[in-house]
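User: Sequence recovery, please. Input:
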């Protein structure tokens, strides 16, 4: 476990996500937990990660998603040098 996630409240948040059983439950929890802007930002970053994983270029990704090049670059760094969280989710979504 990453040291920055050792906080008990963060562990509780992880368990809360893992307790959700379907998209409706997930949506209800996210709507209570986050603003719609935060949810849209997370969704946009995941879409950027999927497009980067498919080898799309920044300009096309920016046009398709409306993401800034800074956001695309940040997601790209996570894909290339991060902890493989995006890759894990992308692979599972493709199954």
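Assistant: Recovered sequence (95 residues):
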């Amino acid at each position: 476990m990453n040291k920055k996630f050792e906080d008990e409240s963060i562990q509780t948040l992880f368990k809360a996500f893992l307790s959700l059983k379907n998209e409706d439950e997930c949506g209800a929890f996210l709507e209570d937990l986050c603003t719609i802007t935060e949810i849209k930002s997370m969704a946009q970053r995941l879409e950027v990660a999927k497009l980067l994983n498919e080898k799309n270029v920044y300009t096309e990704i920016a046009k398709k998603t409306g993401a800034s090049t800074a956001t695309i670059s940040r997601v790209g760094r996570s894909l290339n040098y991060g902890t493989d969280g995006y890759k894990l989710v992308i692979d599972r979504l493709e199954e």
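The chain has a mean pLDDT of 95.
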